[in-house]
Amino acid sequence: MKEEEIVIDIQELKKSFGDNEVLKGMNLQLHRKENLVILGKSGTGKSVLIKCIVKLIEPDEGRLRVLDQEVKDLEADEELNKLRRRVGFLFQGGALYDSMSVRENLRFPLERLSDKPSRDEMEDRVYEALRSVGLEKAIDKMPAELSGGMKKRIALARTLILKPAIVLYDEPTTGLDPATSKEISQLILEMQQEYDISSIIITHDMACARITSNKMKVIRNGVFKYKGTYDELREKNDPWLRDFFE
Amino acid sequence: MKIAESLPESFQRFFINVAGIGRFTKQFFRQVFKPPFEFREILNQAYRLGYDSLFLVGITGFIIGMVMTLQTKPTLEQFGAESWLPSMVSVSIIREIGPVLTALICAGKVGSGIGAELGSMKVSEQIDAMTVSGANAFNYLVVTRVIATTITVPILVYYADAISLVGSYVGVNIEGNVSPSLFYKQSLDILVFSDIVPATIKTLFFGFAIGIVGCYKGATADKGTLGVGSAANSAVVISSLMIFVIDLIAVQLTQLFIR
Ligand SMILES: Nc1ncnc2c1ncn2[C@@H]1O[C@H](COP(=O)(O)OP(=O)(O)OP(=O)(O)O)[C@@H](O)[C@H]1O
Ligand SMILES: [Mg+2]
């Protein structure tokens, strides 16, 4: 495989909710083993964009290829689920299953694989995932007993347990203190390096963007208005853009 | 389009609900025979829903059985037909009061519980999280709960019927003396096939309605905590209404086919 391989290819993607035009022709390419940070004000459609990638939301127009498959054409549940297992999604609020313990949360996706691993193997994978986020001791806790930062990390472990090729992070550090934010950002970087994961990271947190990004794109008025590396964007003399960095 | 828009909002909502529940029911029957079968979760839900309602259903059944007996007794005495008391009470309980009352209690307790649970899962994106992990969320959340209520409600109805008869026995014996064996002979002998089977079949539908409406309202809850509350609330309202409609249809059908 070439290093430069494109894993997500989005062209002229459009989505409206009623009169509310949210995405007005988005273009984006994510390369293999790349961390792409997406920046944008609240309500500009960042979450909508990455939900389109896993078909939680159906776009109105445009092309959307993920891992060489046209997402629109995946009608059968089986094919779609196969793709979804290769694309991890970290939700803005973590979305841990409240009625299940941490162990059950992590086992849930494994138990629903068509070639379900054995009990022991599942237990091993649960521990491995928890170890990678440094929270083995929380295995028997319920989500209600965890702090915000722990929830995010457990959610990250649950996302990684299927060993996805791509991970979509929706504001992984919002609502956390700076120290914990930094830990999570570094975790994201480690995941990229250790497991060769390509990711899209949505964030308002510039420290997170600086640590994790290889490339950045900024949404304004429903399209990507700026792109470049963290340093390139910081040097730009656009007052609108400056607001993010201050 | 125009006609629909000119209707009052409550009518529009009514038709939206009818269409949505219809769609949900269709999806249920498409998914229910498809693997993976979540047997463990079905049992888990059935146990939880049933166990949670035992006390409330039991105590209501007991009181209703007793009150009905005490209320009917003076009337029957006037005609000197006191010995008919147990049979009269048992027929009305088993045909009508037991099933409808139990179903309404379950609509209030179980239906609202399902609506609130799925509603908060929807709002906090837990359902989306299941979906994107490649699991079939409809299968895991909706199919299991609907099967669970469809099994559990009839069982709870039998249980309520039995306890009502105990209540009725106590009622008969407050002023009077009827031996248990005579009481049960009088109250059960009168029951025939056409009392029990239609009553059981309709309770299956009650259970199904409670499950499907609770899940539908939960899974379509609006964002925000307000959405969860109103999902739970309208789950109760709609499923109670459906229980009466099903009951009405059941009466008509029973009369058409059996009598
Ligand atoms: N399911 C939906 N139905 C209707 N409108 C929606 C839906 N999802 C999102 N929207 C609208 O799309 C717009 C973009 O929402 P989105 O959640 O993508 O914002 P965001 O960029 O992620 O913001 P934030 O940083 O606050 O998370 C908002 O105006 C929102 O109201
Ligand atoms: Mg968002």
Automatic annotation (TrEMBL), chain A:
The keyword Cytoplasm does not apply. The keyword ATP-binding applies. Keywords: ATP-binding, Nucleotide-binding, Transport. InterPro entries: AAA+_ATPase (IPR003593), ABC_transporter-like_ATP-bd (IPR003439), ABC_transporter-like_CS (IPR017871), P-loop_NTPase (IPR027417). Residues 8-246 form the ABC transporter domain. SUPFAM superfamilies: P-loop containing nucleoside triphosphate hydrolases. Pfam families: ABC_tran. GO terms for molecular function: ATP binding; ATP hydrolysis activity. PANTHER family: PROTEIN TRIGALACTOSYLDIACYLGLYCEROL 3, CHLOROPLASTIC. This is Methionine ABC transporter ATP-binding protein. The lineage of its organism: Bacteria, Pseudomonadati, Bacteroidota, Cytophagia, Cytophagales.
From TrEMBL, chain B:
Keywords: Membrane, Transmembrane, Transmembrane helix. One of its GO terms (molecular function) is phospholipid transporter activity. The chain crosses the membrane at residues 53-70, 190-214, 234-258. InterPro entries: Permease_MalE (IPR030802). One of its GO terms (cellular component) is ATP-binding cassette (ABC) transporter complex. The keyword Transmembrane applies. PANTHER family: ABC TRANSPORTER PERMEASE PROTEIN-RELATED, PROTEIN TRIGALACTOSYLDIACYLGLYCEROL 1, CHLOROPLASTIC. This is ABC transporter permease protein. It comes from Fulvivirga imtechensis AK7.
